[in-house]
Amino acid sequence: MADTFQTTTTAAKRNRSNNDTEPKKKLTCGDGDPAAALASTRHEFGEHGGVNMSIEASATFTVMEPETMRRMFTGELGPDRDYFIYSRHFNPTVLNLSRLMASLEGTEAAYCTASGMSAISAVLFQLTSSGGHVVASRTLYGGTHALLTHFLPRTCNITTTFVEISDVEKVDEAMIEGKTNVLFFESVSNPTLTVANIPELSRAAHRKGVTVVVDNTFTPMVVSPARLGADVVVHSISKFISGGADIIAGAVCGAASLVNSMMDLQQGAIMLLGPTMNAKVAFELSERIPHLGLRMKEHSNRALVFATRLKNLGLKVIYPGLEDHPHHELLKSMHNKNYGYGGLLCIDMETEERANKLMNYLQNYGQFGFMAVSLGYYETLMSCSGNSTSSELTSEEKVLAGISPGLVRMSIGYIGTLEQKWTQLEKAVTRLQEYGFPNKN
């Protein structure tokens, strides 16, 4: 199915808007705002002319002639010509969401999966084989770290070398030409908010023939890894892109050849492992992406305001939008400036006891947010990363990753007015300081 994303179907021609720009080409950093790319993506109308597309909820698809099915299974006929086999393979509604994700990230193609972890796993299975090698940031989401540290070596003999991603020379040394298949890192790391130098890391990897895979879950709209040199961008759509903390979903964005290979009937990781996205979920997400830019601007704006004010109160705040963050200038040079520096900040309370005390006050006294994992919700969500989303790491690995026992990760929401939420936050922090902690710097 090599041409799946290269041509436009007859049905699609009837259904798309006048601003369609297919086939899509990989964009460069100067090609502009992700919101503009989204607005230029073809618009699918409903079966009866509705402004929203119809949901194709069928698991399987009929054909008019017996010979057609044979041609579909040989790859001669495919979604590019409006022929669909089975929704574990391609589904029209999921394909529409995938086009939006490709536009968002500036890639040729994309396809959406049932979760962020399934997207990551499928990419790694597609790009590596038994005996393969991955170089990865030592600071990653705990589930990704566990996949690379335990699951892939046990099941597939795929090994990973973990490195400090901010040290490009160390990363370069760890990649072995002819052996290393993938360089994997997060645009902004979970949970320490370390910023990866995507252009430099990509150049180093490409010199050795290594594919660069970037998890951009923390910074959709804010950073565009593919425009900065990355080959593949993965997402947990469950977070900012969904925005409602009610959907589990993922996406793989990259070259059409990669996405098509992942859907291949004989060798495709998505096709054969089957992390299928439900068409109804794809429809809901397609309706949320158009206002993602507005949401990210407010997430980022409030995170910067709160980080600045919390620092002035004497707390140890980590936020890449602050000028004293070690990677502030790097992110400033890479980000799409209209969307700020992201919606996550960290407060280092040094000990788990202090972290728990802070979160307890913020939720139960200040009504500022909720103690919960995940991110990208309209309410603020907070967790102590060391004993939650990074709990898969050993104590030594947490130290190497820079994860303090008292590190509180906050995903800043946008509900209420900024000053209303700041008053709640300040009230809780002030009360804590009256009891002697956290001590002012």
Report on this structure.
The modification N6-(pyridoxal phosphate)lysine is found at residue 239. Its cofactor is pyridoxal 5'-phosphate. It comes from Cicer arietinum. Residues 1-30 have low confidence and may be disordered. The protein has helices at 10-15, 34-39, 66-73, 92-105, 116-127, 142-156, 168-174, 198-207, 256-262, 269-273, 279-288, 292-312, 328-334, 352-364, 395-401, 418-434, and strands at 109-113, 133-137, 159-163, 180-186, 211-215, 232-236, 250-254, 317-318, 344-348, 369-371, 380-384, 407-411. The chain contains 16 helices and twelve strands. By secondary structure, the chain is of the alpha/beta class. It is globular, with a radius of gyration of 22 Å. The protein folds into two domains: 10-290, Type I PLP-dependent aspartate aminotransferase-like (Major domain) (Aspartate Aminotransferase, domain 2, 3-Layer(aba) Sandwich); 291-434, Aspartate Aminotransferase, domain 1 (Alpha-Beta Complex), CATH 3.90.1150. The chain is 37% helix and 13% strand.
